[in-house]
Amino acid sequence: MSEQRRLQNYLQDILEAIDRMRRYVEHMDEEAFLNNRLVQDAVVRNFEIIGEASHNIRKLYPEFFVDHPGLPLAYAYQMRNALAHGYFDVNIKIVWRTIRDDLPGLDEKIRALGPDLVEGQ
């Protein structure tokens, strides 16, 4: 039986996935992203990680979920489901806009929780 991961681990998983995606696309514009299936696949995988970590936070740490309504954890899980189960119908332009418009804010919101939650092990 595996030991339950700590809240900090899930938050760190989200931050690491955001950082990976940022590095994958840092020298790309939308057109380059739309034409690079390898990067698209890597990005989608990291959105799945964010969604799964968000779901685990919501399920295992419901008090944290309720106390932080500004964190889009439910939305992240919904996006994960759409990407994982609707893979044949994914609008990659929406994925690009999410990277560009939403991930920086999610990163900031998590980091604003403070080092005890973000870096605490």
Brief sketch in words of this structure:
The chain is mainly alpha-helical. The protein contains 7 helices and no strands.
Write the layout of secondary structure elements.
Blueprint (H helix, E strand, L loop, with lengths): L6 H19 L4 H5 L2 H24 L1 H6 L5 H13 L6 H20 L3 H4 L3
Helix pairs in contact: 1-3, 1-6, 3-5
Notes on the structure:
There is one protein chain. The protein has 121 residues and is mostly helical. It has a domain at 37-114. Helices cover 75% and strands 0% of the residues. The chain is globular and about 40 Å long. The mean pLDDT is 90.
Helical coverage, percent range: over 70%
**What is the helix tally?**
7
Report the major sheet: none
Question: How would you spell out the order of helices and strands?
Answer: HHHHHHH
- What is the number of beta strands? 0
Average pLDDT confidence is: 90
Work out the radius of gyration: 15 Å
**CA-to-CA gap between the ends?**
21 Å
Give the low-confidence spans. none
Dominant shape? globular
Tell me the structural class: mainly alpha
**Beta-sheet strand percentage?**
under 5%
